[in-house]
Amino acid sequence: MNEKSYTELMKKSAMKKKKLKESFVLDLYIDILLAEVLLNKERAKLMKEIDEAIDKGNKTAFTQLSKQYKELAQRFGT
User: Fold this and answer.
1) 3-class secondary structure for 29-75?
2) Does residue 33 lie in a domain region?
3) Using the 8-state DSSP alphabet, how is residue 3 labeled?
4) pLDDT, tens digit (0-9, with 9 covering 90-100), for 46-73
5) Rounded to the nearest 5 degrees, what angle is found at the Cα of 42, between the Cα atoms of 40 and 44?
6) Residue 6: what pLDDT?
7) For residues 63, 50, 77 and 29, what is the CA-based torsion angle, rounded to 10 degrees?
8) Number of domains in the chain
9) Residues 6 or more apart whose Cβ sits within 8 Å of residue 43
10) Residue 62: which residues within 8 A CB-CB, separation 6 or more?
11) Among 14-18, 24-28, 44-48, which stretch is predicted with the lowest mean pLDDT?
12) How many CB atoms lie within 10 A of CB 65?
C-alpha cells in the first residue's frame, strides 16, 4: 500500500499553498511591470505629440493632447 502519514500530507499541502502564493505574487509583479511599461510608452507618445503640436503652433491639438496627458496622469496617479 502507498499510504502517507498525516505529517507527510500536511507538508505536501503546505508546500502546495506556498507555491500558489509565490505564483500569485509573481503574476501580480508581472502585471504591475507590464502596466508601468505601457504607461511609460503612452506617456512618451503623448509628450512627443505635445511637442510636435507646440512646434507646429497647433493650439487645438496641444489642448486636446494636454487634456489626455492629464487624464493619463490621474488614472495612474502619477
Assistant:
1) HHHHHHHHHHHHHHHHHHHHHHHHHHHHCCHHHHHHHHHHHHHHHHH
2) no
3) -
4) 999 999 999 999 999 999 999 999 999 8
5) 65
6) 75
7) 150
8) 1
9) 69, 72, 78
10) 50, 53, 54
11) 14-18
12) 21
CA angle 15, 16, 18 (to 5 degrees): 65
Q: Which of 10-14, 42-46, 53-57 has the lowest mean pLDDT?
A: 10-14
Residue 3 has pLDDT above 90, yes or no: no
Domain that holds residue 73: 45-78
Block residue for cell numbers 491639438: 61
Within a domain: 38: no
Grid coordinates in use for 51? 511637442
User: What grid cell was written down for 63?
Assistant: 489642448
